[in-house]
Amino acid sequence: MNTKEIKVHITEFNGASELPGEEQTLLQQAAESAAKSYAPYSEFHVGAAVLLENGEIICGSNQENAAYPAGLCAERVALFYANSKYPGVKVKTLAIAAFADHFILDKPISPCGTCRQVIAETENRQQSKIKILMQGESGPVNMTEGIENLLPLTFYEEKLKKK
C-alpha cells in the first residue's frame, strides 16, 4: 500500500483592498451580480464575474427554481455565457462573491462540485489555468491559481477514451 499526500495552495488576503485594482473591480462586479440573483428558496445569493483574455467581463448570478436541479449557479451562468458569446477567448480570472439574507457570510464562498468540474473543463479546453477569487459578504478573500487546488482529483476527458 502507498499513501499519497495532496497539497493545495490558497492565498488568503485580509480583504479585497489587498488585491490589485483589476481584481478588486472584478470582485465588486461579482458582488453586484449577487444582488441580482434569483434565490427565493435558499436565500443565498451568489454572483460571479469572469475576466476574459480580451478584457471583457461577463457576469452571472445564481438562478433558482422550485424544482431545485433546474437552477444554475452563478459560476456556470457566467462561464457558459462567456464561452457562448466569445468562443475561443480564454478565461483569465473568475471572481465569486456571496451574501445570505439571514446571516453574515464572513468567510469566502467556494464553487460547488459541479461548478468545479465546469471550471476544470474550461481550463482543459483553453489549456491554461484560471485564477479564482472567492469572497463572502465580509472577511478575507481567498485566491488560487488553477482548479486543481479546489478539485485535486479532477475528472478529465482522457478518462473517457477507450483506446
Total separate domains: 1
Q: Specify the overall morphology.
A: globular
Level of helix content?
10-25%
- Tell me about the largest β-sheet: 6 strands, mixed
**How are the strands ordered across the major sheet?**
1-6-5-4-2-3
Tell me, rounded to a whole number, the average pLDDT.
95
Number of strands: 6
Q: What would your notes on this structure say?
A:
The chain is of the alpha+beta class. The chain has a single domain, classed as Cytidine Deaminase, domain 2 (3-Layer(aba) Sandwich), CATH 3.40.140.10. Helix content is 25%, strand content 23%. Strands 1-6-5-4-2-3 form a six-stranded mixed beta sheet. Strand 4, helix 3 (113-126) and strand 5 form a beta-alpha-beta unit. The longest helix is centred in the N-terminal third of the chain and has 14 residues, at 21-34. It is globular, with a radius of gyration of 16 Å.
Please supply descriptive tags for the structure shown above.
single chain; about 160 residues; alpha+beta; Cytidine Deaminase, domain 2; 6-stranded mixed β-sheet; 3 helices; 6 strands
